[in-house]
C-alpha cells in the first residue's frame, strides 16, 4: 500500500499538473492521474468524496491567489464532466517590470537549494506517465521539482502523532475576543486543511461534544497524554470539512474594492461579483478575515455584515493608536 499523501503534496501536485498543460485537464484526468487523488480513485465510479475534495482544493488554490481557470467548450455546454482546468502560465508569471539585483538573485539561488530536481516519488512518476499517456505533454524541469521545506503550525506534528496513537491531548486555546487561554482536553480524530489553514477535529472531553479547533489559536505546547480513546464510526475528516464548508457558505461579506490594487487582485479572486461593482466574499472565521481585510487599509471598504465592519474598524483604530494617533 503506498504511503499516505499529505494535503500539501496533493495541492502542490495539482498546481504543477495544471501549470504543465496548455489545453487543460478534465476532472477525470485529474482524479485518475494526479498525485494525492489517483491513490483513491475508483475507475468504475464511487468517487463522490474525492470529487468534493477536488472542489475544496480548487477553492484553496484560488484563495492563495493562483489563477485557476475553468474552460468549457461551446460543444460541451452544460456537460460538467468535460470542463477542463488549467493555470495559465502567463498570468502566473512575475510581472515584466519586476527585476532583481545581483544580491537578490544570490538569495534566490540559496532558496532554490530547498528544492530538488528529480524529487518525484515513484507514485508521482507513474502519475506523470499516466498524464503523458493521455496525450498531455508536461514540462519536465517544472514537474521535476518539489519543496523540501514545509511551514506548518507547531501543533501539527504532536497532534498527528496523538491521532496515530489514539491518545487524548491537552492544549491551551485562545478564542477570538478572549484574553485568557483555556485548557482543552481533546480526543483528536482528524487534521484537515480548509481555506489554507489547518484545523484539528475531535471530541472536546470537557464539553462532551465534537469540536473543530484552529491550530494557529493553540497556545503553547500540545501535551499527548497516556489516556487512550476509541475512534468513532464514520469519516471524521469528511465531517469536519463538511462543517467548515457549511460555515463558509453561511458567512458572506460585501466589499467595495479600489480598482487596480492588491486588495482587488487578492480579495477579488476569492469572491464573486455583486451589484454595483461590489464583490461578495465568503469566509470561515470572522476574526481572521477581519485581520486579512484590515491589512489592505483604504483599498477595501466593508459594507456588510455589521460585525465585520466593527471588527475591521477596531483593527484599524488599533493601528492608529499604536502609531501615536493623528499627528496632523
TrEMBL record:
Keyword Phosphoprotein: no
Superkingdom, natural source: Bacteria
Domain WYL: 155-220
Cellular compartments per GO CC: proteasome complex
Ranges for domain WCX: 262-319
Keywords, alphabetical: Proteasome
Pfam families linked to this entry: WCX, WYL
Protein name (record): Proteasome accessory factor B
Amino acid at each position: 500500500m503506498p504511503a499516505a499523501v499529505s494535503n500539501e503534496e496533493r495541492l502542490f501536485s495539482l498546481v504543477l499538473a495544471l501549470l504543465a498543460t496548455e489545453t487543460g485537464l478534465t476532472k477525470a484526468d485529474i482524479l485518475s492521474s494526479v498525485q494525492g487523488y489517483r491513490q483513491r480513485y475508483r475507475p468504475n465510479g464511487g468517487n463522490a468524496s474525492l470529487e468534493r475534495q477536488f472542489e475544496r482544493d480548487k477553492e484553496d488554490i484560488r484563495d492563495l491567489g493562483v489563477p485557476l481557470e475553468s474552460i468549457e467548450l461551446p460543444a460541451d455546454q452544460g456537460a460538467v464532466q468535460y470542463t477542463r482546468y488549467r493555470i495559465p502560465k502567463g498570468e502566473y508569471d512575475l510581472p515584466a517590470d519586476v527585476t532583481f539585483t545581483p544580491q537578490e538573485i544570490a538569495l534566490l539561488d540559496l532558496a532554490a537549494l530547498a528544492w530538488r530536481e528529480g524529487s518525484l516519488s515513484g507514485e508521482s512518476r507513474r502519475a506523470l506517465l499516466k498524464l503523458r499517456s493521455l496525450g498531455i505533454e508536461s514540462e519536465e524541469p517544472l514537474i521535476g521539482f518539489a519543496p523540501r521545506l514545509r511551514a506548518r503550525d507547531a501543533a501539527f506534528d504532536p497532534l498527528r502523532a496523538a491521532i496515530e496513537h489514539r491518545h487524548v491531548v491537552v492544549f491551551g486555546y485562545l478564542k477570538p475576543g478572549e484574553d485568557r487561554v483555556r485548557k482543552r482536553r481533546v480526543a483528536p480524530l482528524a487534521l484537515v486543511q480548509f481555506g489554507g489553514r489547518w484545523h484539528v477535529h475531535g471530541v472536546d472531553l470537557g464539553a462532551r461534544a465534537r469540536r473543530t479547533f484552529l491550530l494557529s489559536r493553540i497556545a503553547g505546547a500540545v501535551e499527548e497524554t497516556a489516556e487512550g480513546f476509541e475512534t468513532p464510526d464514520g469519516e471524521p475528516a469528511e465531517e469536519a470539512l463538511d462543517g467548515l464548508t457549511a460555515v463558509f457558505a453561511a458567512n458572506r461579506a460585501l466589499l467595495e474594492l479600489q480598482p487596480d490594487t492588491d486588495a482587488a487582485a487578492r480579495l477579488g479572486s476569492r469572491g464573486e461579483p455583486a451589484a454595483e461593482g461590489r464583490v461578495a466574499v465568503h469566509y470561515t472565521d470572522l476574526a481572521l478575515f477581519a485581520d486579512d481585510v484590515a491589512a489592505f487599509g483604504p483599498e477595501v471598504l466593508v459594507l456588510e455584515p455589521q460585525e465585520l465592519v466593527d471588527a475591521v474598524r477596531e483593527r484599524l483604530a488599533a493601528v492608529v493608536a499604536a502609531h501615536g494617533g493623528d499627528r496632523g
